[in-house]
Amino acid sequence: IFWAMNTSPVLGVCKFMCPESEGNRRRREGKLNIFEFDSQGRCDPVKEYVRSGLGHEVPDPLTLRPPAVLVKTLEHLIRKSAINILLLVFMLPYMAMLNYCHM
What we know:
Elements lengths: L19 H9 L38 H35 L2
């Protein structure tokens, strides 16, 4: 739900973690993060944070996510972060050993 001064609340209707239009734009511009790809190279983008400025018009409901999708997105980010942290923790000793062996 989005509230702007002197307007009615706007309920988001986007059912994806990233609106299709934004995902397509970011693909074209090469602005997808490495963590938005799975091990098979499939992309699952997450809506980019954009700070709204004072006086900006009310966002399009098609680009806003309803609460259930926000929860799904947070769960995805937490799960993805945990996996990446575990990989990093387990890989660091091997990476250090490889660097030492190549000296």
